[in-house]
Design brief:
ABC transporter transmembrane region fold; four-stranded antiparallel sheet; elongated
Amino acid sequence: MKQKNKLLDETTWRIIREAKGIAGWVAVSAVLGILAVLCSIAAPEILGDLIQRLCDFGLGDRGIPIRDTLVKGLAVLTAVYAFQSLLRYGNMQLMNRAVSRHFTCGLRIAISEKIRRLPVKYVDQTPVGDILNRMIDDVGEMGGYIHQIFDVMVEGVFQITMIAVAMFLENGVLACLVILLTPVSLWLSSKVAGLSGKYYDARFEKAGELTEIVEESFTNFATAKAYNLEAYTAEKHAAVNGALRKVTAKANFMGSIVQPLIKFANAMAYIFINLVGGWLIVRRGVGVGTVVTIVLFARQFSSPLEQIASGFANLSHVKACAKRVFQLLDMEEEPQTEGILPETLRGEIGFDNVGFSYSPDTPLIEHLNLHVSPGQRVAIVGPTGAGKTTIVNLLMRFYDVSGGCITLDGQDISRLSREEVRRNFGMVLQDTWLFRGTIAENVAYGKPDATREEIENACREAYCDHFIRTLPDGYDTRISEDTTALSGGQKQLLTIARALLAGRPLLILDEATSNVDTRTEILVQKAMDRLMKGKTCFVIAHRLSTIVDADLILVLDHGHIVEQGKHDQLLAKRGFYYALYTSQYAV
């Protein structure tokens, strides 16, 4: 338990350290807050003095010009409260803008940059909904709390100190009563806040699960409809949502009970102080103005305590968010290498005794040796799970080899920066990916500085210029991944145009024709032939008719190259490739 509390303290301090980017704004906010506190100290003094003068006037001291005194005192009091309100408003605007623009924005940028430096396996193994939840909801909760932390630490502590001094200057007995009753409130708030921590942790875990389910439901909406799985999805959602409702109710109850307890304790203290104050007026001759001033200070004294109580109540909630964010930010990053390649590549690839596995207990690729000459078209075929896509992942350094090395123009790619390796590869995948934007912007994704003429030339070479011009806005038509106005084949032609425009010397085609109809496949194949011209190409294919013209066909099984050669040579061997081919096309 002690270790847990220590961890929570470290989390709180780290939230504060993360706010160093808004330190200047916090300093200005602290000055405004201190000025507002001074106004709140002055107001009871002024009001107490006015009440004392009224009492003296009522007891027969008619020499006091009561009307002028009241008018002047009320005018000053009004000015003090008005100035205090302006300071509070300015402080609120200042901190809200600083937090939203710098703190939360900075954290989200840091998370985005962190994900870019993390191994690809993290994104492969982590649901998208969980990452989005951390980046959006959790960071938003932290941003909402950082203002409260500084209010409590700076303004709250200063206000308590100043009020305590002012009360002792007025009357030591009543000041002691107010201050001695304070620890009760703090003790209650800290105890209840400690109990609520575990419920907030559970709440955010369930919230992440719910986000994942919702994200999956909308992403696979058509599939769920096709298989009549709406009821199953709804039940799955309801189960997690019900668990979330229960832990949220417990967390909210434990968190919300703090302030009522504090208010009750403060109310009892307030009643007691009033009774003692009345006794002092009657028995000890203490001035009415002094007691009123102390009573007003007692009410103000409870305000920062309630802020602290609220801070304790929210702290467990925010720490649960912060721990998830910091867990992501503290993950081990990929080792960075700085090697670079010459501007012009020949495109020679070598696999030298390469070994790799996604799991140490399950070897996948062992002792893989391969030499690919510049400009050669290499097809990779084999059954599911043979390691075809893994070879592409290793080439692109999405994963690094566990043994041996892969060379590019004679240089070990593990000594090159990942960006340097990837800038030389173009990719056309089975699943087309288009982002929300114009057709021209999507085609220029691999070359953002491309001119309109270059974009149109690439589309003509990819046989998609014609259908683009039939669209209402031509190249300026806005599309996205969910666009239904384009067929699967048309989307694939756009991704081929994108790769053509990028003009990279190495090319990876992963089942690029598998999702198109036979008629469109002819256009796609012609576009790919243009795309592959003069490039070193790796073609992953299940449909073996698309790779009969490859310079080299690699037949993989369980991570090993079991056969290699040209189409006719492999058929003549009547081995593994022959069995694959005839299983597709034998009548």
